[in-house]
Amino acid sequence: MRSPSEESVPLHEEFIYCCGAATHVLKCGPWKDLSKDENKNLPRLLFMIIPGNPGLAGYYRTFIQALYCGLNQQYPVWVVSHAGHCKPPSGMEMIEDTDIKELEDVFGLNGQVEHKLNFLKKNVSKDIKLVLIAHSIGCYITLEMMKRASELQVLRSVLLFPTIERMAQSPQGKLMTPLLCKLRYALYMPVYLLSFLPEGVKASLVRFALRGMKTCDESSITTSINLFSVDCIANILYMASQEMMKVVERDSTTIKQNLKKLIFYYGTGDSWCPQHYYDEIKMDFPDGDIRLCEKGLRHAFVLDASKEMAAMITDWLQDDLTKL
Fold it and tell me: What family is this (predicted)?
């Protein structure tokens, strides 16, 4: 039986407050509410995407649609933006979160971890198992979630291009750390001025910036227009500056404790987590499921390889899903 095209699958969009911060949620599948224990139709499993940085949910739209179809539409696939990494449409009603207290630094790295845990606590029944699919700094966040909330029923965590150690020492980190930690405020005024441009001009600028790609996901272009928001870009750069300072040593203890649940996927030409990081973790955990990309995918795979990545993950998880 042929699965339907990604364009035809149910996709629900929400803008909510979580821990006092604006949050964008994309939900693939007919399940809009997974928090009601009395609902007998709850699925057994939720696939939840923990994004990289920028942590805008829209970058993963094609990815979650492809993943949902690859899973034969049997399980919900959600992506939750990072706190403050979104620009709610003007006039769109926000759903106020009254049950969870505001975090002191929700936009920082620690706050983003608590933000995801609080989202799960508020929105997902404890009876539902989880497959956490994390990208880039989302992998660090996911390991922290597993460390802080061991009660989570995590079936698998898939860590894509994981920035879980020595970020400032990576080739890209050496280039970006001075900018992010010392000069990021200088970017706010240009972004503020660009925010007044018409949407069509912003889209043209994004297309120009991504012109080097043979094929670029259209949803990535639409989503990138949000980067012209000063509030959004300030939260993105602030979080990135903390990544450079705080992501230093790999948390080998948490990895060891959860090794059988983890799949790592490293790139061959990734300037955020270079190949020798893969070599070292492979040596430290020879029994772990630690893979090296053989397809030449870029770190920001959501820009042009979402469907290819979704197909690989579906294949990796077949045995786990069969045992459910």
Answer: Belongs to the AB hydrolase superfamily. LDAH family.
pLDDT digit string, tens, across residues 264-312: 999 999 999 999 999 999 999 999 999 999 999 999 999 999 999 999 9
Known catalytic residue: 136? yes
Catalytic residue among 135, 170, 220, 270: 270
CATH of the domain at 103: 3.40.50.1820
pLDDT of residue 237 exceeding 90: yes
Please name which of 76, 101, 122, 135 lies closest in space to residue 306, comparing C-alpha atoms: 135
Mean pLDDT of 151-155: 96
Q: How many domains does the chain contain in total?
A: 1
- 12 carries an active-site annotation: no
Residue 184 within any structural domain of the chain: no
Q: Please check whether residue 262 lies inside any domain of the structure.
A: yes
Catalytic residue among 81, 85, 97, 136: 136
The beta-strand segments (E) located in 51-99 are 77-80
Sign of the CA dihedral with 105 first, then 145, 78, and 281 last = positive
